[in-house]
Amino acid sequence: MPLQFIVCDEAQFCTVEQCDQLALIVDELHVDVYAFGLITDFKGLLFDGTRRLLEIADQRIEMQVEARCWCGARATNNARLVNDKVVLEGETVMVGDTDKNTSAPLFGDVVRYELLCRNHYRKKQVSAD
Ligand SMILES: [Zn+2]
Questions:
Q1: pTM assigned to the model
Q2: Which in 42, 44, 56, 84 has the greatest CB count within 10 A?
Q3: Measured in angstroms, how far is the CA atom of residue 40 from the centroid of ligand 1?
């Protein structure tokens, strides 16, 4: 059976070069590519892969899963919490322990993400506060 389509998940982590390769698959191999991913990182900035895909994609569809902040407002930001504190600086990709059920991290810091509305992102107010 010929290749019908390709699904690329976590596409925000693709490099610009990889995004262009996905476009080549569409144009030269005539195979549809569906890329799924986040729009912005924890700083509220476009991921490199996302930016490139937005530039070159034939179609952009916002997922209909409406993300909500703990206050009920529409979530616009994916806040990074390191040891339960919202951080606005740091590398786009961070390696850490994301298991919130462990009392002590296996290595490094405890890193988790929480969806917040713009207002609570700015005030760094997460649900536990
Ligand atoms: Zn909120």
A1: 0.71
A2: 42
A3: 17
